[in-house]
Amino acid sequence: MKKYFCKSAIGLMISAGIANAGVTLVLDDYDSDPNGNALGAGTLSNIVFNNPFSQGSDFTLDTMLNTGMDVGALVFNSGIGVEQGGSISYNSNGAGLNYNGVANGTQAFELDFAMVDQAFQANIVMTTYDDMGNAVGDARWAILVNAGTNITATWSFADFIIINGDFDAANIDDITLNLNLEEGATASLDFVATEFRAVVPAPGAIVLLSLGGLLISRRERL
After folding, report:
1. How far apart (Å, rounded) are the C-alpha atoms in residues 45 and 218?
2. Is the pTM of this model over 0.70?
């Protein structure tokens, strides 16, 4: 049942995307710690995969940094030759988000960057918990973030791959961004990320979304 439901949910979101280009919902603008945006406080971590020259590296939140795009940013600094990865997780400090990707018609996630000095791989992992707080399923998708200034990386919801059949798009308890993946990690990488958003239908498009869900469900059952 879960796998069937997720398949329908992704179809719903694709239908909504075709019907309307959508608007954005700010999930984290990195201007306070802890923040007050849609996902609450995020937990940062970093891991060094390779450090051949014993250089320093870090991944930090700077709530006062003014990039010209926004105030507040995630700052990723890597020493020469260092391969490191950074992650930011949203899960209400382990209690679970209960983010409903179906009800709000999530079409995509976007992450703005003021600067990226080299291309790198990044993914988003969405996880569902059971009633005991255990992870029971997830969906994920990786993209290439290109080098440049004032760019936006986009993860289309329709591209996510369900790793476990118990993942529920209507009950997403953890959303984690993994930046600079270990396999093929970019060495000496620096970037500044300024805002994390969800693309959702514009007001008035939710009715179309709901009707689309009924049609998809009926077709699947037939």
Report:
1. 44
2. yes
| Closest by Cα among 14, 4, 10 to 218 | 4
Q: Which domains does the chain have, with CATH numbers?
A: 2-203 (2.60.120.430)
CB 109 within 8 A of CB 169: no
Fill in the amino acid letter for 77: N
Find, among 173, 174, 121, 180, the residue nearest to 145 by Cα: 121
Structure tokens at 97: 């988000």
Going through 91-132 in order, the beta strands assigned E by DSSP cover: 108-116, 120-129
pLDDT digits (tens, 9 = 90+) for 149-199: 999 999 999 999 999 889 999 999 999 999 999 999 999 999 999 999 999
C-alpha 51/C-alpha 39 separation (Å) is: 33
Q: With cut-offs at 50, 70 and 90, classify the pLDDT of residue 90.
A: very high
**Is the preceding omega at residue 34 within 30 degrees of 0, hence cis?**
yes
Q: What is the rounded CA–CA span in Å between residue 134 and residue 131?
A: 7
Cβ atoms of 22 and 201 closer than 8 Å: yes
Helix/strand/coil for 10: helix
Q: Identify the sign of the CA torsion 69, 75, 77, 82.
A: negative
What interhelical angle do 206-221 and 2-19 show, nearest 10? 140
160 is written with which tokens? 């996510």
* Residues facing residue 26 across a β-bridge: 197
Burial class (CB in 10 A: 0-12, 13-18, 19+), 147: middle
CA 44/CA 49 separation, integer angstroms: 17
